[in-house]
Design brief:
The structure is a homodimer. Chain A is an alpha+beta fold. Helix content of chain A is about 20%, strand content about 30%.
Chain lengths: ~250, ~250
Amino acid sequence: MTRYKAIISYDGTDFSGFQRQPQARTVQEEIEKTLLRLNSGHPVTIHGAGRTDAGVHAYGQVIHFDLPQERDVEKLRFGLDTQCPDDIDIVAIEVVEDDFHARYNKHSKTYEFLVDVGRPKNPMMRHYATHYPYPVDLSLMQEAIVNLLGTHDFTGFTASGTSVENKVRTITEARVERDDKTDFLVFTFSGNGFLYKQVRNMVGTLLKIGNGRMPVSQVKTVLESCNRDLAGPTAAGNGLYLKEIRYE
Amino acid sequence: MTRYKAIISYDGTDFSGFQRQPQARTVQEEIEKTLLRLNSGHPVTIHGAGRTDAGVHAYGQVIHFDLPQERDVEKLRFGLDTQCPDDIDIVAIEVVEDDFHARYNKHSKTYEFLVDVGRPKNPMMRHYATHYPYPVDLSLMQEAIVNLLGTHDFTGFTASGTSVENKVRTITEARVERDDKTDFLVFTFSGNGFLYKQVRNMVGTLLKIGNGRMPVSQVKTVLESCNRDLAGPTAAGNGLYLKEIRYE
C-alpha cells in the first residue's frame, strides 16, 4: 500500500461541493470514479483537507488516497488529470508516509474571496467572483479587517446550528486590497482552521462596513458578542477560493 | 426616433454567437427580447459592429438601435443591464446621430486571445482561454507575429469558402506577451477589419511556430502564398475576446 498526497484545483460552479453526497455531482465522487478506473476497477476513497460548499472553487485543495502499488507520480498525476472531468485539475502528486492524513495532520489554510464591485459587472467572472453592486470604501474595510487577526471565538461568524463545539480559531492573515488590473476586491484569510461559512460571513460583514451600513467596530462587536445576528449576510460561495494548504 | 449606441460585454460560453439564428441562443436575440419589454412590446432590432462566433467573448462589442423617444441614457443602460441575462452586460449607452451605424461607420477593432499554456491547466479558465498543452518559445512567436503588421491579403488566414471578395486588411497592432500573474499568453491584434476566423487562424499558426513545429517564416509564407493549407489549425473560440472598437 502506498499513500499519495495530491494538490487539486477545481471550478466549483457545477459541483454540489467537495464531499460525496447522494444524487449530486461532487468533486470527491468524480475523482473517486476516475481512480476506480486507474485502479483496475477497485474502489479508492479520497480524503480532503476540508470540505468546500457548492460553487466554491479551489486552487490548492489537498487530498490523500491509497493505491496497492507505488507508481511513478508524474505518470499518475498526468493520468488522473487528463481522465478527470474538465473542471478538476490535478496540480501535483507525491508519495507520503502511511500515516499522513490530509484532514487530521496539522495545517493552515489560505482562502481568497473575490468581489466584483459596482456596475456594470464583468459577465466573464459571474461564477468566479461575488457581485456587489454598491460602492465600498476600501479603507473602512481595511480598518475593520485587522480586528479578525489573532485568536478569537468565531461563533458570531459561523452558521447557526454548526455541530463543532470549539469555535475558537486563530487567524494569522486578514487583508483586503483592490486588484489594479481587474478592479476587484481581493480578501485574503489564513489560519489554522475555519468554521462553516466563516469566511463568507466575515466578507459579508466587511462589505456592509465598506458600504457604510455598519460601523467599523462591528467586527469587534460580533466577535465579543458571539451573536450571529449582528454580523452581515453570508456572501455568495462563487467568490470563494481555497487557495493553499500548508502542513507543518 | 432616437438612435442609441451601446457598448456591451458578454460571456460567449452559452451563446451560439452574436447573430440571431433560428433554434439557437444568441446575444442579439437576448438583447432584442429585453428591448421589446423596455419598448412597450414593440420590436427593436439591434445592429452589431461585428459578429462573434460561438464561444467567443466580448468586452467591447458595439451595437446600435432606435427607440421612439429620447430617454435618460443612464436609466436606459441600467434597465437594459439588469433585465438582460446574467451573461450579457451593458457597459455604456449614448445617443448618436440618426445615421450612425455600428457596422458601416468606419472603425478599428482590437481582439485579444488568451492561451493557457502547459499542464496543469487552470480549470476556472477553461471557457475563457484556449488550453495549449505543449511548451512554446515566446520569442519565436514574437519574431513571427510582426510579419502580420501592415496591409496584406489575408486569404491564407481566413476560413475557406468565405464569401467576402476583398481579403486585403490592415493590421496596426500585433503582439504576444506572457501575463506575469496568470502565466497565460496574451495575443493582441488591432486593425481596420478582420476576416472570418482570421484571428483564430493567426493564433493557431503562431502557436505551432512557438512549439517549433513550423518555422518563424511560416507567417510570411502563408501571407504570400494565400494558401490556407499552409497555416496552422484554427484555435478554439473560447480564448477570443472582442476587446474594443474605436470609431473615427
